[in-house]
Structures are given as C-alpha cells and as structure tokens.
Amino acid sequence: MNDVRAKRIASFIEPLRVEPGSKVRLAKDFDPAFKAGVTKKREGRELLRAGVELLAEYQRRLAAEKTHGVLLCLQALDAGGKDGTIRHVMSGVNPQGVKVSSFKVPSAEELDHDYLWRYACRLPARGEIGIFNRSHYEEVLVVRVHPENLDRQHLPGASVGKDMWARRYREINDWERYLTDNGFAVVKLFLNLSWEQQRARFLKRIDVPERNWKFSAADIRERSFWKDYQHAFSEMLSATSKPWAPWYVIPADRKWFARLCAGAVLAHTLMELDPQYPRVSDEARDELRKARAELEAEEKPPTTAGGSRRA
Ligand code: AMP
Ligand code: MG
C-alpha cells in the first residue's frame, strides 16, 4: 500500500523536476498554470489533506531516528505564495520538529561574513525539518539582478568578476553535496508565478485592507526587473539542479495546486529517507520489563516524612 502511494507521488512530481544537466528556459519549459491530472480544487485539497497526514507521520519518525535532517528551500518572486505554502503544507506537523527561517536584506553582521554564513547558522539539526523562506539562492538571484548588493559584501577584488556567478553556483552545489553526504536532504522548490497572476495578486494586496501590509512600493520596482529575474532563475536552475539536490519548479498560479505539489515533493523526500523509530536493545528491553513490573507492584502514592502540612 505504502509502495503504491510512494510510486504515485513520485510520478506526480516527476514533470516538475529540473533534469540535472538540462538547460532551462523558464518561460518556454515550465507553465505556471500547469495542474497535472488534478483538475478540481476540491480534489486537490483532499489530496493535500492526505499528504499533510503522511508528512506528520514521517516527521515523527525523522525526529525519533535523529539521523537525518531535511532542508526545504523556498524561492519565488514576490506574491509567489511562499508564506501560504509553509502555512498549509506544515499545518499537521509538530512545530517542535520544524524550524522556519526567513532571509531578508542582510544585516551588517551578516555582511561581515562569507555569503553562506548566515544560511549555515540556520541549518536544521538531525531530526528536524528546516524551512528557508528565501534561501542562499538569493545570493545568485537578487544579488545578480542588483549587483549593487555586491558592493556591500566587502568581497576581495579577485572574487568579483565575469565568472563569479559560475563560481557561486559551484560553491552552492558543493555545499549542498556536503550537506547531503552528511545526512541532510536538500529540497529546493521554485514557485513559478506568471506575470499576469503576480499583477492580480498585487492588486488584491492593494485593494483588500487586511492584505495592505503585504504590499510595498519595492514590489512594483522589482516587477520592472521581471525579465532579469526570469533570466537569473533560468541560469540558476540550469546550473544548480543536481542529482543530490534537484530543483522542482512548482506551477504557482493556483495556490491550491502549488501547495499540493510542495507537499508531494516533501513527502517524496521523507519517503526516500524512510526514517525508522529506533529499536531498543535486548538490554534496554529488560530494563523496560523491570520498570513495568515495578509500576504494576505499586499500591498507593508515597507519603512525605512529616505527612501533609494541611492536616
Ligand atoms: P520579503 O521576503 O518580501 O519580506 O522581502 C525580503 C527582501 O529581502 C526581498 O526583497 C529580497 O530580495 C531581499 N533579500 C533577501 N536576501 C537578500 C540578499 N542576500 N541580498 C539582498 N537582498 C536580499
Ligand atoms: Mg515581499
């Protein structure tokens, strides 16, 4: 049964995976409105509910086993749906086992370190699922689209120049390889939103008072760099989708479908890790038996030497 479910999830997410070594042209290769075989929102929501239960079960096993960790990296353009995806996909999971980190414009202290430092500081421990709401990929996205960010990074002259993006891709690939070799799965999701849908979501953020706080003038400025971002995303996806940490391009125009896909990729990763509850040794089992016998033999609660103070 589990095997059938695992196969179904694997084939569902297959078209979303960026084939390692392939050259991605985002606008041509991935449709933000794609919805696989799931055509109805209600059906999608039911599937997500089942997925959320599955994730909760696997997360319990991951936490008990304490051998592997999972790092989920979420990238998107503004209004791509990162926050909602985290809220929905993780809704059934024990909050103690999940650590969400959001990355904004780097602080002075962060800029005083190498560019991966602040991300390394927030990595999940064994047994945990770490979620990066924006991630180290900003270092080859916003920093590439707005190179003035580089001026603030205090880099030596030799590490800035024409080949610097190829070098950063390699450094990121090596870092992720190191993490996966050490038991941490790296899951990378790009929520792929269309130009039209971003406009619709911005208008909603402007028109609905409860959503005003989500909108900033900077969002419109960033939108004017749409083409540059599409190019930066395409290059980044081509260079950093690796067998040990492939990218998944999630069609993000329908929120319910994006959440379903994100849940499916995470479930697939956990099923591949297949964490197990630790088995106790024969010795420990003897201890458990003894403790059980003691508990069964108990008659009444112990009284303190002086008896109750109230008496
Ligand atoms: P938000 O996620 O909407 O709160 O915005 C966070 C902002 O921080 C976005 O505009 C990002 O582009 C920006 N940001 C995130 N990481 C970096 C970085 N490494 N360098 C410069 N800006 C960044
Ligand atoms: Mg924003």
Automatic annotation (TrEMBL):
Residues 41-270 form the Polyphosphate kinase-2-related domain. It comes from the Bacteria. Keywords: Kinase, Transferase. Residues 284-301 have a biased composition (Basic and acidic residues). The keyword Methyltransferase does not apply. The keyword ATP-binding does not apply. Residues 284-311 are annotated as: Disordered. InterPro entries: P-loop_NTPase (IPR027417), Polyphosphate_phosphotransfera (IPR016898), PPK2-rel_1 (IPR022300), PPK2-related (IPR022488). This is PPK2 family polyphosphate:nucleotide phosphotransferase.
